[in-house]
């Protein structure tokens, strides 16, 4: 009996960087699970935050003034631009054009977002607004105990967003490895764009909710 030839996609996954391909280039089922988990987690945190916001709107609005909205906006702009670059790369592969430069640019923009978020977290730590064990909470506004809840929501969502952003960046690596071959790069870019989508949508929802209160 003749052995069945491996599926073309299986051969793609087996080519170079096999461990990373198995994790991130597994096709639609893993992407669907990723999207489901991201939607549930981000929506749950934002909903809980909005419910608490209804009870203490003035306190949360005052606490929001302590955040670095300009720095967060710069990081978000890098994130949105990376998404647009990925969309252009996906269309370029369908025209059989080289996309290595675009994928590298998207990676650099994603890293720029991580750098902005890291700097924001460092500034909050220096100001005593990052509630870590052993770190005194130095918020000088009114009702600090209620304001602490605002910062707990903010840092929980920011940490989760960083994790999903790191996964989305890693999803670009298989596409980068195949970027010289349009046939191999196209499906991987489509998957990478799927990983990128909830990261952008979560930032678009979180920025006005946390940074624009009372502004």
UniProtKB/TrEMBL annotation:
Annotated ranges, domain Heme-copper oxidase subunit III family profile: 23-215
Its membrane topology: Multi-pass membrane protein
Localization, UniProt: Cell membrane; Membrane
Membrane-spanning ranges: 31-51, 71-89, 101-123, 156-177, 189-213
SUPFAM superfamilies noted in UniProt: Cytochrome c oxidase subunit III-like
Alphabetically ordered keywords of this record: Membrane, Transmembrane, Transmembrane helix
Similarity annotation: Belongs to the cytochrome c oxidase subunit 3 family.
Protein name: Cytochrome/quinol oxidase subunit 3
């Amino acid at each position: 009996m003749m052995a069945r030839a491996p599926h073309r996609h299986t051969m793609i996954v087996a080519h170079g960087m096999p461990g990373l391909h198995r994790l991130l280039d597994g096709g639609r089922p893993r992407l669907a699970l990723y999207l489901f988990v991201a939607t549930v987690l981000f929506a749950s945190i934002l909903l809980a935050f909005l419910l608490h916001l209804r009870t203490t709107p003035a306190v949360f609005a005052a606490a929001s003034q302590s955040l670095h909205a300009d720095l967060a906006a710069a990081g978000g702009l890098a994130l949105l631009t990376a998404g647009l670059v990925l969309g252009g790369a996906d269309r370029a592969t369908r025209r059989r054009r080289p996309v290595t430069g675009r994928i590298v640019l998207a990676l650099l923009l994603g890293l720029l977002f991580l750098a902005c978020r890291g700097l924001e977290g460092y500034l909050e730590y220096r100001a005593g607004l990052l509630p870590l064990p052993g770190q005194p909470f130095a918020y000088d506004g009114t009702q600090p105990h209620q304001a602490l809840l605002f910062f707990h929501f903010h840092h929980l969502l920011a940490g989760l967003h960083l994790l999903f952003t790191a996964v989305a960046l890693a999803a670009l690596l298989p596409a980068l490895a195949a970027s010289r071959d349009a046939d191999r790069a196209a499906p991987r870019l489509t998957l990478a764009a799927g990983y990128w989508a909830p990261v952008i949508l979560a930032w678009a929802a979180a920025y006005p909710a946390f940074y624009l209160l009372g502004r």
